[in-house]
Every structure is written in C-alpha cells, then in structure tokens.
Amino acid sequence: xxxxxxxxxxxxxxxxxxxxxxxxxxxxxxxxxxxxxxxxxxxxxxxxxxxxxxxxxxxxxxxxxxxxxxxxxxxxxxxxxxxxxxxxxxxxxxxxxxxxxxxxxxxxxxxxxxxxxxxxxxxxxxxxxxxxxxxxxxxxxxxxxxxxxxxxxxxxxxxxxxxxxxxxxxxxxxxxxxxxxxxxxxxxxxxxxxxxxxxxxxxxxxxxxxxxxxxxxxxxxxxxxxxxxxxxxxxxxxxxxxxxxxxxxxxxxxxxxxxxxxxxxxxxxxxxxxxxxxxxxxx
Length: 283
Hints:
By secondary structure, the protein is an alpha+beta fold. It contains nine helices and six strands. The longest helix has 47 residues, at 159-205.
C-alpha cells in the first residue's frame, strides 16, 4: 500500500553538515485500496447481493410471466400459408433472354407486392376484411435465391383465409406483371409507329421516280421490321404457381407458454441484477 513520503532536515554537530531523515506515512488513497483489494472479494460480494435479491426478482418474474400468458392467450390465433410461383417468360427455356426476363419480372413481382393498389386487389379478391396496412404486414413476397422462384408467405386468422390470400397474391401479381409488360411493349411499338408514319408522310410527298424514294422505302421497311422484333423480344410472360399453396392446420402463434417463460426468465435476470446494483450503491 502506498503512502506519503516525509522528509526532514536537522543540524549536525559537525560544522557545515546536516542530517536528512525520511519516513513514510501510510496513505488512504481509494484507488490504491481498490487495486489491492482481491477480485474474488468483489465477486463474492456481488453474489451475496444477488442471493438477497432472489425472492423479490422471482416475484417480479412471476408477475411478468402471468401477465404475458394472459395477454397472449387472449390474442387471435395466426395461421400460415406458403406457396411458390415461377415466371414463365415465353422465351427459349435456358436462354440468356429467358434468364434476363425472369430476373426482371421476378424483381417486379416482389416490388409490386408492397404496392397499395395490389394489396387492395388481393383483399377484395380474397374476400378478407383487412386494411392495406394489415395486408402489408401479413403478406410477404420474396425471391428464392436458390431457385429464382417467387415465394409467398401469408399469415391469416384461419388456414382457409391464409390459403385463399396466397392464391390471390399469385393471380393479382400475374395480372399486374402482364399489364406492365404489355405497357412497356406498347411504348416501344408506338415510338416505332410514329417513325413509320413520318417516313410514309415523306414518301407521299415525293414524286414518283424520285431517287430519294428508294432510301425512304428501305427505312420504312426496316422500322416496320423492328416492330415485329420488339414483339418477338418481349413475349407474353406469366406468373404461375409451382405448387399449390399449403396452410398449416395448427396456429404458428401466439404461444402463451413459450412467450411467458422467456419473458419471465429475462425479467428475473434484469430484476436480480438491478436490485443488486441498488444495494451496492447504498453501501
């Protein structure tokens, strides 16, 4: 343990000399005491405080467990339905175009699943009394990274309700994907048609036998051919179910016993540690 160093000087009988004495006074530095204090003693003190906190913490845990069980038992059961759908692109199976179109339309299906208008269509078609917000919370659409397919998961108040909604999700997304794809094709085709109309107008303005007619006619033929190419490059795609959606016969939640036990254990630990800390600060 460290202390204070005291130095004193007193005269010496010899001329011109003096004597220096030094002594150490025991110190009371708190940090020094903390360093010298055995770690095992702190651990034992903490364990003693925890032991005195067991019964209050246990009472708190029981209250938490009972309240959680009562609340969870009064909640409506939740059933799960799952399904898988596959994008049929209309392109040659296994080709680069097939893979590219499938990836694009799969991403589109996942994005559309959060669209409010799509959710409202699903609710109306399935006959559920849900709001769009509730539907967004209960419907999950994602891309399966292993197969590239579209996976659908629906939580409902009954197995039949979950099953019906899962089926309607596939149908509504199929309609929306087809409509979006058709709109994209029509935009491209309309632009080419405008070009063809301009070329036809220029041709009609030229007199017969004009050298410029030949070049304009070739351009017109090329543009009309591009229209056919665009339609061929964007075949009609569809989102079709791979497996019929299946719903669980047993609810996946709530689970009163499991939830109550987990929260009771957490409550016990937090209460015991909190009481031990309070007792330590009161010392």
